[in-house]
């Protein structure tokens, strides 16, 4: 060993971030082990000592106080030093990759699809590492090809037989970070993203607010002619994005979150964080959305449970309950507003629970419940009787059809007697 050995160590320290002293100690330890093996072969049982001159790079090995000088040991020393250095380089590279991407947890990275497996998509992350997107972390609209460039959210970085970088295209953080990249006002903190609700591949709602009155938060996110939000939609493979103006006024925030539906009235229960939203019949499907998606995302965005109903539906419910003798319009409205929207619900509740409502004592609650049960029983019996009568009326028709069918089957074929 000589100064060339030290030069290599110094170069590794600069390029790979490896501490030269750590490498020297590792080489010393490995040579000590190697020397002990030699000592065992030669039946020498004395202590082994290895010294490395940090100035010249010379290595000396002592067994039992005597320096070992042999070509065999020189060859072993060179091989050992090479193996230790290679091992340390690999360990350092793994540690560097782990440290670099661990810092990026919660951020997004760009990569190229270079392998498609049964359970995951593998991205090449700028030649530094591999990123894994499990299929459960893909958006339903994702359909990648080899060589395609993709952005993904860094979900987790862990050490498990090397560095594992788990990426996600489904996480709502991906949308958040894409807006930070596309909208300078968000990146600079002038516009804040207050909340986000996402159903990957279908729709995302974001609530934004501006710290500067001169900056329109919604306009900043949309961009000139929609250029900024279009880029994000393109990256998300056509996922719809609703940008909502945040408001400290819960009613205003709910109205904005349910857009484009027109809201007639909102009633809030601040203790339970529940909101009853009243809309016209022609606005109901718009407010609820396809498969309830619009109201579901709005609830998540606002952080309140939102119940959307039409005025006509409530009127029908009130009229249904008004069939009971002990209930007037005012009391029927109270019951409907409290969630007792049908006679069946009223009949199944306890008197103690119902008596908590305004204007209903325990005795009145018992009467209402009993009357509801009686009404439903009578209606059920009436419906059953009507069904039986309808069935009896159909029997002669069925018999006639059977006879006609028999006659048809008994007719002689053409050309036969």
In short:
The chain is built from 15 helices and 14 strands. The chain has helices at 3-16, 20-41, 71-102, 172-182, 184-187, 217-222, 227-235, 250-257, 281-288, 293-302, 311-321, 329-337, 343-348, 351-354, 362-410, and strands at residues 48-52, 59-63, 66-67, 108-116, 120-125, 129-134, 149-159, 163-168, 191-199, 203-210, 240-245, 265-269, 274-279, 305-310.
Structure in words:
This protein folds into five domains: 99 residues, N Utilization Substance Protein A, Chain:P, domain 4; 67 residues, Nucleic acid-binding proteins (OB fold (Dihydrolipoamide Acetyltransferase, E2P)), CATH 2.40.50.140; 76 residues, GMP Synthetase, Chain A, domain 3 (2-Layer Sandwich); 62 residues, GMP Synthetase, Chain A, domain 3; 57 residues, 5' to 3' exonuclease, C-terminal subdomain (DNA polymerase, domain 1, Orthogonal Bundle). The protein has 417 residues and is α+β, with helices and mostly antiparallel strands. The protein contains 15 helices and 14 strands. The chain starts with a helix and ends in a 7-residue tail after the last helix. Helices cover 49% and strands 22% of the residues. The longest helix is centred in the C-terminal third of the chain and has 49 residues. The mean pLDDT is 82. A hairpin with a 4-residue loop joins strand 12 and strand 13. It is elongated and about 115 Å long. Strands 4-5-6-8-7 form a five-stranded mixed beta barrel. The chain has a three-stranded antiparallel beta sheet with strand order 1-2-3, covered by helices on one side. The chain has a three-stranded mixed beta sheet with strand order 9-10-11, with helices on both faces. Helix 2 packs antiparallel against helix 3 and helix 4 runs antiparallel to helix 7.
